[in-house]
């Protein structure tokens, strides 16, 4: 497993002069084409975290349609792109990005929404950036301009994702899940994560990992997560070799 190349996919729009994706279909086709460009043939092991979880399904389906062998690994996400608190407006998008970046805490995430929507003289992005710890801003190499751009990108992704309705299936899916931001883990598992069963031709493997949705890859949990992830990936690779 260690000698296999690893590639990361990042939403278009971070680099200068890059256009944001205009549709979910464009995102999927671009990702699939990029994967084929760097590795022309499978087997592919495609992992998607959060928003990338539901993205991994149509990307894998696109590659399977080309005759490739694909394994899907989902990191704490259901197959649908639905926000737990409902419709995502500019304020909600900015709040979620700020929370994931460590600019605000859970209490602020839960309480600032109405305040920002009702305060017409306050720019939500400016305000949230003003709350961010200086050390965290420096650590991420952010300033107000780049943070505003990131907000625009994140909001755009939420809007095109809302049109996506999963369908079809892939050969196999493994789901890693943690404590959700809101609600109980048991409810999250039964009402949201189990929806993956519909989209896999093999029984879905569900694997619990430590941490919360937004902290799985934080320093206090990432070592254990990568240990679990690598173990499952090794099993897949070994099984793939045995089936040849």
TrEMBL record:
The keyword RNA-binding does not apply. Pfam families: Thioesterase. This is Siderophore biosynthesis non-ribosomal peptide synthetase modules. GO terms for molecular function: nucleotidyltransferase activity. Keywords: Nucleotidyltransferase, Transferase. Its EC number is 2.7.7.-. It comes from Sporolactobacillus inulinus. The keyword Nucleotidyltransferase applies. Transmembrane segments: none annotated. Gene3D superfamilies: alpha/beta hydrolase. Residues 6-224 form the Thioesterase domain. InterPro entries: AB_hydrolase_fold, Thioesterase. It comes from the Bacteria.
């Amino acid at each position: 497993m260690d000698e296999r190349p690893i590639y990361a996919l990042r939403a278009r729009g971070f680099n200068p002069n890059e256009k944001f994706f205009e549709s979910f279909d464009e995102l999927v086709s671009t990702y699939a084409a990029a994967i084929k460009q760097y590795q022309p043939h499978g087997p592919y092991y495609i992992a998607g975290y959060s928003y990338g979880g539901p993205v991994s399904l149509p990307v894998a389906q696109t590659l399977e349609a080309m005759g490739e062998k694909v394994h899907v690994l989902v990191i704490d996400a259901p197959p649908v792109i639905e926000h737990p608190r409902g419709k995502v407006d500019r304020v909600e998008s900015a709040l979620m990005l700020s929370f994931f970046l460590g600019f605000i805490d859970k209490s602020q995430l839960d309480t600032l929404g109405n305040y920002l929507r009702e305060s017409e003289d306050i720019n939500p992005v400016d305000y949230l950036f003003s709350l961010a710890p200086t050390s965290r801003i420096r650590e991420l190499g952010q300033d107000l301009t780049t943070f505003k751009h990131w907000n625009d990108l994140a909001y755009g992704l939420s809007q095109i994702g809302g049109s996506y309705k999963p369908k079809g299936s892939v050969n196999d899916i493994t789901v890693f899940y943690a404590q959700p931001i809101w609600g109980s883990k048991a409810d999250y598992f039964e009402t949201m994560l189990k929806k993956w069963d519909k989209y896999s031709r093999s029984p879905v493997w569900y694997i619990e990992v430590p941490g919360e949705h937004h902290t799985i890859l934080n320093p206090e949990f990432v070592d254990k997560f990568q240990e679990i992830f690598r173990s499952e990936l090794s099993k897949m690779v070994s099984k793939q070799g045995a089936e040849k």
